[in-house]
Design a protein that fits this description.
Blueprint lengths: L3 E4 L10 H6 L3 E7 L5 H17 L2 E7 L4 H14 L3 E4 L4 H4 L3
Parallel strand pairs: 1-4, 2-3, 2-4
Amino acid sequence: MGLAVAAGTSGLMPGASTEAQAAGKKLTILASVPDLAFPFFVHMMGQIKAEGDKLGDIEVVVADGQRSSPKQTADVEAAITKGVDGIVISPNEVNALAPA
């Protein structure tokens, strides 16, 4: 299965988990934001997790970049290594994430 990446997305798409439902598999999605100290990003993570819960077969893993592009890049690389099914990211710095 390929990896899906959505940059700057504020939620998950309805019906995106149909393949996982058919296989009885729970999808794992990394949701990465620049800093959870900002209320906007806290709200965004809450909405993404709520959509995952509503769909029922999606586990959302939250990553706080802590205003550090190297940390956010490392979080994304670690998630890819672990085999996440998708990534939703609001980058701290767009160019810093290009290599990831």
